[in-house]
Every structure is written in structure tokens, then in C-alpha cells.
Amino acid sequence: MVAPITLNLALLLILLAAAGFIVYMVKQQKRIYAWSYRLLLAGFVLHTLYLGHQYYTLGVQPVIGMKASLSFFAWAIIGAYLVFHLKFKLMILGSFIAPLAACLMIISTTIPGGEVVVKPSFKSLWLTFHVAISFLGDGLFALAFIAAIMYLIQERQIKKKRLGSFYTRLPSLETLDTINHYSLMYGFPFLTIGMVMGAIYAQNTLGTYWQWDPKEVWSLITWLFYAALLHARIAVGWRGRRAAIMSIIAFLVLIFTFLGASLWLSDYHSFKNLEGGTGV
Amino acid sequence: MITILDIGMNHETAPVELRECIAREPENASLVLASMRELSSIREGLFLSTCNRVEALCVTEEPKEARESVIALLSRLGNVPEADFLSSLFDYKDREAIRHIYRVASSLDSMVVGEPQILGQIKDAYYEATREKTSGVILNRLLHRAFHVAKRVRTETGVSDAAVSISYAAVELAKKIFYDLEGKKVLLIGAGEMAELAATHLMSQGVSAIYVANRTFERAIQLAESFKGRPVSFEEIMTQILEVDIVISSTASTEFIILYDQVKGSMKKRRNRPLFFIDIAVPRDVEPRVNDLDNVYVYDIDDLKGVIEVNMAQRQQEAVKAERIVEEEVIKFEKWLKTLAVVPTIVSLKEKAEAIRKAEIKKSLAGLQELTPAQIKQMENLTVSITEKIINDPILVLKGKAGRSTRDNYIDIMRKLFKLDPDNGEGE
Q1: d(Cα A160, Cα B298) in Å, to the nearest integer?
Q2: Band of the pLDDT at A266, cuts 50, 70, 90?
Q3: pLDDT in tens, A1-12
């Protein structure tokens, strides 16, 4: 009984934080920011407790099915933001991150839960790492995506010489570009390691590393997009607008892999199968 | 009855020639304060003199005399007959004076609303007044509140957010592109007041190096010296562009000096590090198409003027918010002033009670010689707490009435009941 209450409370706190962050963006008062940040932190802690509890009772990473995955994704995004906040202290970033995470969590609550079937094959440390690390990578990529959007808004204002209200509120181009850069730099190894672990898990349980199922293929495509972007950034010297647009595209591909490939292109990775229990 | 007066002139009420006359000498302030100290009608005084305003703020119990002496003082100061500037004076009293000083401190009364210098100037004037010992209880509090109001206005409104001068606007833009200007390099092409001002502002933001290019190399050396920069020849500009982050251009050239193709080529070599051109020259030095390149930003003089205009409009909006803050604080200060009016009565009541107690103790002790020191101490304590308890309620009532219109009646009754004014009470 306690677990759902914890989750709902976490959702409530994150929603309040998101609202606070938006008010902060308009009003620019530090006090509002400070409270929003505390609310977000409290929500994150509760969410973490909930996930820990789920992990303990289910014995597996609580990411079985779309509902749990979205919730976990939101957790990973907030986590990535909180870590980045330690370094960059960018208050306005919260105004973009918190609403995104709150949206994901709301969508997650509207999806009917159903009975979670935990198959014995799920109880593997490899799977736990595969899922956790992939999601942390996704969280970092979400951060890169948000920074890219903020960059494009700010860049457009400066280029077109129409300095609207976002101009004063958004941070400098260099800051946003740096956030985008580091999110990609740190996110990419997570994605890669996550995929490798998935392959090892597949080898252990299914006897083959790679099955060419749609989610695997799309994950590979996502990986290639990010690899190309990182290469362009580091080796070719891409920066600013181009890198921002590319990281938005790459994130959209990632979202498609996450939602599309899981929902419509059914195979053993899909949520339908995971929930229905016919897969794996 | 205590009155706060603020008499003077600013950029709105008086022409610059007149203000110049009176605000000429910087050491005037201490002279004025010294003469204020001599005047019996002025209890506390402060003198503020900047290029846009001259004003005397004073606390007095005889407003009429005080006003006359201040005007005479200003007349002597500027060597201008009173009749010549009387019409240019503003003359604020109490509430208006408090509001005025708050508005001045928050830069709402400035020619360029939101400019930051005025607060420093008021702080200096206040420092001067404390040094000359012309500020007392009321001005100390008033000025500290004024600094507080200025801080609130700065943090709670956008009045001082936006840059309203060309060179500030350029620096703000640079900060929005690069965030931290520390360690960035600047190339200054040509010379001119505005370009040099922009370079100076950038220097104060911590840019690490300034390169100066000029058609005549001698002039470049000269300018470089004043900025502690490095002179470069005009032909080197394109190689320097590979190194620097900000280019300020202000030459008299009739043709473009920096061309699209050149910059496009150098961006590759720069690995797309952002480049910001501030083109102050008329006609322009930088080909406008350069702005189309990724990671390159070109602002010419008209663009910068456009930025300033937008900022000005924004400030006007924010000023409304600031006026509300000022109004809030004026009301708070008035409330405090009113409590000040009951303070003398409370003080004399306490003094009278204490005097009675002391006299009675003295009488009693004279007849009780065998008491030990501990017993004497105890008696002291007993009498102190009795007198305190007796006068406590009347004091509370008086404090409670401090802000009401019936305050003066209560003060009057209190003074009569406790016979605090010996002369007045005799007839009854």
C-alpha cells in the first residue's frame, strides 16, 4: 500500500516543482527557484525510494512494461539534471527538464498497469545493468536534447537581433553548447555499455548475442546517429547550431526506438510481449 | 514636529548650465554639510551632488527657516542669485521627500532609468554626512532604508537588467554568446570613442588580450599602450581573426574590410569557435552576409541601437513595478517615523519613574542603616520591578497609538497625567 502512495507523492512533488520552475522562468525570482529545486529533489528522493522498493519486491529492475519504463525514464532525466546542476548551476535548465519529466510521469500514470509478470529469465544482473545503464544514457541524451532546444531558441534571437524575453532568461550560447557536448560525451558510453550488456544478457538467456529484432535494429541506428554526432563534434569540429539540430534529430530517433519500436514493431523486446508474457 | 525636507534640482527641473554652476566643485559637499551643521534650524543634513542633480536632504523642526537657509546656501554655493533658480527647484516634504530619496537611490529618478552609478553616489554622500556628523537617527535610518529599497528594486524588477548604452549592449551580447569573457581575446580595428569605450568595458570583464590594428601603425601602437594591448598591422587582421573571439571595428573605410569569404574560410580553421563582430563604423566595415555564417554574430551600430530601444521600453514597464516597491517602503518608513513621535514621551515617563524611585530609595535607606548589601540589592530589585510594571501598560498603549490620528491626544494626556512637563502643569 505504501509504494503507490510514495510514487504519487513523488509525482505531486515533481509536478509542483515543474510548476514552480515555470513560474521562476517568468518571474525570475530566486526564492521560487530555490523552492522548486527542493521540491524536485524531494520528489526525486521519494521516486528513488519507490524504485528501490519495487526492485526489492519484484527482484528485477522496475522497467517491465511501458508504464514502469516511462516512470524510470523520468527518474533518469531528473537524475541526470541533478548531477549536471552540481557542475553548471544553471537554474533555467530546470524550467525545461522538470516539465518534461513531469509529463513522462503523468503519461506513465495514465497507462493501465496490469499484473506484472516477472519471468525467471528477467532475474539477471546483466539485465539489471543493461536497463539501468541504457536509461541513464537516455537521461543524459534528454538533457542534451533540452540544451539543444534552448540553444536554438537563444541562437535564433541573437542571430535575428530580436532579443525577446527569452534572451535575458536563457543562458549563454557557449554554456548551452557545453552542456550539450558533455551530455553527449557522457551519454554515449552509457548507451554503448548498455547495449553490450544487453547482448551479453541475450547470449546468456537466448543463446545468441544479436537477433535483429526491431528494437535492436533501431537501437543500433540510434547508436550510429549519436556516434556520428560525437564524431562530428570531436573530430570535425561541429559546434553550435548544427550540433544542436543533429542532437535533436538523434533524440527523436531515440524516442522512436523507445516508443515506436516497442509498441508497433512487435518482437521479444516489445512491451506487449513483456506484459503479456509471450515473449522471451 | 519633525519634518523631512528635500530641496534641490535635477535634470528635469533645471537646465544643465544651472546645475553645473552649483555642482561645480567636488569638495563642496563637506562645505555644505559644515554650514548645515552650523544652522540651528537643521537637525540632520545630507548633500548630494552629481552631474544630474544637486539636492539637500534635511531633518528639521522648523521647516520654513530650514528651507530658507538651504536655498540661501545653494545660492551662495553657485554664486547665483536666489531669484534666478527658485523656479528650477523641487521642494519635497515628508512623504514626498522620503519617496523622492527612495526613487533616486533606486535609479528611478535618473536620466537613464536603471543606471547603476547613482546608488554609489548616494552612498558616498551619506558617508560624507556621517563623517561630518550631520546625519542622525532619522537620516541614518532613511538612508539605510533607501539602500534596501534600491536593492529590492534591483533584484525584484528588471529595471537595471537591460543595457541602455551602445557599449554596454555590446558587452551584454558578448556575455550571451560566450558566457565568461575571462580569457577571451579582442581585436580592435580602427579607433573612435565608442569603440574604445566598448573595449574598455570588455577589459573590465576580464578579457585576456587586446590586439589593436590601425591603418597607421603608429596610432595602433599608441592605442595599444592605453589598453596594455598588442599593436598589429592592418594586413595581419585576417590572421588575427583566427585567434580572437571578439572583433570591434570602427574604421573610416568606405569599403568592407571583413568579407564573407574570408570569414567563412577562417571559421574552418577556428574549428567553429564562435566569433562576435561589433561593427560600430558608419559606413559598415563588416559585410552583412557574414552574420549568415554559423557561429558568427555580427552586430552593427543600428542593431545595437535597436537592442537599446527594446531595453528602454522594457525598463519603462519594469519601472511601474519598482514604483510599487517604493510606495510600500515609504509607508513602512512613515510608520516608523510616527513611532518616533511617541518616543520622547516614553523616555520622559521612564526617567520620571526612575527619578522617583531613586529619591524614595535614598530616603528609605537613610533610615535603614543595618541592612546588608544583599538586602539593599533586593530592595533595589523590588522597587525597579514595581515601577516598571506600573508604567508598562501606559507605554504599551502609547506605542499602540503611534500610527493613529489620536496619537497627539494620547501624548498630551500622558504628559498631563504623569506631569511630564513641569511648566505646563502648574496652572491647573
Answers
A1: 10
A2: low
A3: 567 788 888 888
Nearest chain B CA: its distance from A153 CA (Å): 12
Strand order across the beta sheet in which B42-49 lies:
B42-49, B53-60, B3-10, B90-93
Which residue has 566598448 as its cell numbers?
A: B198
C-alpha grid cell for residue B246? 571578439
Q: 3-class DSSP state for residue B245?
A: coil
d(CA A94, CA A36): 9
pLDDT digits (tens, 9 = 90+) for A158-206: 888 877 777 877 888 888 898 899 889 889 999 999 888 888 888 887 7
Residue type, B327: E
* Whole-number Å distance between alpha carbons of A116 and A122: 12
pLDDT at A278 over 50: no
Distance, in Å, from the CA atom of B226 to the CA atom of B242, rounded to the nearest integer, reads 24
State the sign of the Cα–Cα–Cα–Cα dihedral A211, A212, A215, A221: positive
**Three-state SS at B62:** coil
- Residues B10 and B109: beta-carbon distance below 8 Å: yes
> Using alpha carbons only, how large is chain B's radius of gyration in Å?
32
- Chain A (240-269) residues lying within 8 Å, Cβ to Cβ, of chain B: 240-242
Which residues in chain A are contacts of B271 at CB distance < 8 A? 237, 239
A123 to chain B, any CB pair closer than 8 A? The answer is no
Q: CA B428, CA B426: separation in Å to the nearest integer?
A: 6
Cα–Cα distance measured from residue A250 to residue A137, given in angstroms and rounded to the nearest whole number? 13
> What is the CB neighbour count within 10 angstroms for residue A52?
12
Query: Which chain B residues are within 8 Å of A159, Cβ to Cβ?
Result: 291, 297
Closest CA to A128 of A191, A192, A61, A64: A61
Total number of residues shown for chain A: 280
Report the distance separating Cα A163 and Cα B40, nearest Å: 56
Q: How far apart are CA B213 and CA B227, in angstroms?
A: 12
Catalytic residues of B: 51
